[in-house]
Amino acid sequence: MSNYLKIAAVNLKHNTAPHLLLAIVIALLTSVIFGISSLNESESAQPLEMFLSLTGIVLLTPIFLPEQNENIRELVRSKRIDYLAICLIRLVYSVIFLAFIFGIFTIIMHHCESDVTIQHFTGGFASGIFLGALGFFFAGITNNSIIGYMVSIVYYIGNFMLKDNLKHWYLFSMSSGNFDEKYWLLGSSAVLFIIAFVIIKKFRK
What we know:
Elements: H1 2-34, H2 41-50, H3 54-60, H4 70-77, H5 83-111, H6 118-142, H7 145-158, H8 163-166, H9 180-203
Helix pairs in contact: 1-3, 1-5, 2-6, 3-5, 3-6, 5-6, 6-7, 6-9
């Protein structure tokens, strides 16, 4: 366990810190762009779904980024701990950070007298993690984080124009008074994470 904690600490310092800082900046910008005081239930969903969800892309898409350098990848794979185990550690603490950001933001909204509940937290987190899972998946299977970012951002933009076409995978459903889509987003995120690891394990030695 101590080895895994050391790996997490090293990766957090050298790989994740810049992305975490950017996610915090996005959270600060969300409060400025939308305003978070005295919002009703529907209005409270908008900053969480429509902007704070971008933190998912920032935190989860670059999980595989360090090893896209061939020299670093070979060095990591020469170690006793499996390469994908290291990526899993990064994924776990990145998801925790994502949940933490949404949790703190929701609490702040509550203290600003906005009508937010645990459902708002869950729904916003679902949109964020799905965007991140898309980036994670495509960055992983293509070995190119730029592609992961592009897919996630294009999908995010598409949600402003293709609401009816996206059906269960519509990111902004809470703002329209619906929550069922969030279960699909959470479940689909888990599937994307698993499939990405399986593909990398099987086809990229």
